[in-house]
Write a structure and sequence with these properties.
This protein has about 150 residues and is of the alpha+beta class. The chain is built from two helices and seven strands, in the order H-H-E-E-E-E-E-E-E. The termini are far apart.
Length: about 150
């Protein structure tokens, strides 16, 4: 009888462990702002999808600091969290760049299944620079365009 009680207790604890989400970056702020798949990329000034919403777009933007496009002027080099709510298939990965005009010498890629990065301070561009407050442009690419080790979470 004792072995049965221990087995049931172990099974119960294991089931409880399965019920708890295992998302590495789960955050109340970003979870609450998840719109579902609407075809857009978003960026916020602060971590956890808080503070000023810098931009929302289904397109690309070669220069977050110019006066054109969905990200403009003071949006450059201030993003601390980003979201990929794009449609799955084809060019469904968002590549965020350290430089303007999609300069491929330094970038980080966000897959659609990752949903968002609640704190860019945990991530680095391919040149090793920290991504927090350092994004200057973004574009949609296929996952095959991203080098191994360039995916962010």
């Amino acid at each position: 009888m004792r072995k049965l009680s221990i087995a049931l207790a172990t099974l119960g604890l294991a089931a409880l462990g399965l019920a708890v989400p295992a998302t590495a970056h789960a955050s109340a702020g970003c979870d609450a702002k998840w719109p579902g798949r609407d075809g857009n990329v978003r960026a916020w000034k602060d971590a956890d999808c808080q503070g000023e919403l810098l931009g929302v777009t289904p397109g690309s933007d070669p220069n977050w600091g110019d006066g054109a496009g969905p990200f403009q002027g003071s949006d450059v080099n201030v993003a601390s969290s980003v979201m990929n709510s794009g449609y799955v298939g084809g060019k469904d990965v968002v590549a965020f760049y350290y430089l303007t005009n999609y300069n491929d010498t330094s970038y980080g890629c966000l897959k659609p299944g990752e949903l968002y990065v609640d704190n860019l301070g945990r991530n680095h561009f391919t040149n090793g620079a920290n991504m927090n407050d350092n994004i200057m442009s973004h574009t949609w690419v296929a996952a095959s365009a991203c080098a191994p080790g360039s995916f962010i979470s």
